[in-house]
Amino acid sequence: MTHDTLQEQAAQLECLLPKLMRRLFTLEPDHPVTELSLAQLRVCTILQAGPRTLSAIGVELGISVSAITQIADRLERAGLVERVAGKDDRRTRLLQLTAHGAELMRSRRQARVRHAAEALEQLSPEKRETVLRALEALLEAAQQIAPEIPAEDPVGARLEQ
């Protein structure tokens, strides 16, 4: 395979994946999560894996603690997160999803899985297996070249649910 072909395939992948993600995972406009900003949604996604300090969330998202504090304040006013004392050190303040926030994120995931199932249903069982194996292989290849994702990755946590 020539370098040009590889670059063309990479460009095609770069174009296809965002379109695929939007088609599969865009929620109905009336779903409550659509009212959250992207930053708020990213924080809630991280918190699905469990409570975190604001500084840990900032590091994971690559933004300042003051920016995370503002996001946390808005999420707290909306009733989606709460600040709690750390288990080992009561002076440590952690951010965690409230029961309402956790339910909202569960509902979001269920809707996304439902959309993916509807799309997969359009394929034969053989094609579904081929697609899933190809995506797993692409993920493995990406893991070889991309920076390591923290062990407490919320996506991995969701996959284990």
Structural notes for this entry:
By secondary structure, the chain is mainly alpha-helical. The chain has a domain at 27-114: Winged helix-like DNA-binding domain superfamily/Winged helix DNA-binding domain (Arc Repressor Mutant, subunit A, Orthogonal Bundle), CATH 1.10.10. 64% of the residues lie in helices and 6% in strands. It is built from seven helices and two strands; from the N terminus they run ααααββααα. A two-stranded antiparallel ribbon has the order 1-2. A hairpin with a 7-residue loop joins strand 1 (81-85) and strand 2. Helix 3 packs across helix 4. It is globular and about 55 Å long. The termini are far apart. Mean pLDDT is 88; it is low at 154-161.
Labels describing this entry:
single chain; mainly alpha; 64% helix; disordered C terminus; 2 strands; 161 residues; two-stranded antiparallel sheet; Arc Repressor Mutant, subunit A
In short:
This protein has helices at residues 3-25, 38-47, 54-61, 65-77, 99-120, 125-145, 154-159, and strands at residues 81-85, 93-97.
CATH superfamily of the domain at 27-114: Winged helix-like DNA-binding domain superfamily/Winged helix DNA-binding domain
The fold-level CATH name of the domain at 27-114 is Arc Repressor Mutant, subunit A
Radius of gyration: 19 Å
Kindly provide the name of the CATH class of the domain at 27-114.
Answer: Mainly Alpha
- Which CATH-level-2 architecture of the domain at 27-114? Orthogonal Bundle
Strand order of the largest sheet: 1-2
What's the end-to-end separation, in Å?
Answer: 40 Å
How would you sum up the major sheet? 2 strands, antiparallel
Q: What is the chain-wise order of helices and strands?
A: HHHHEEHHH
Total strand segments: 2
How would you describe the shape? globular
Number of helical segments with 4 or more residues: 7
Characterize the quaternary organization of these chains.
single chain
Query: Could you tell me the strand content as a percent range?
Result: 5-15%
Mean pLDDT over all positions: 88
Low-confidence stretches are 154-161
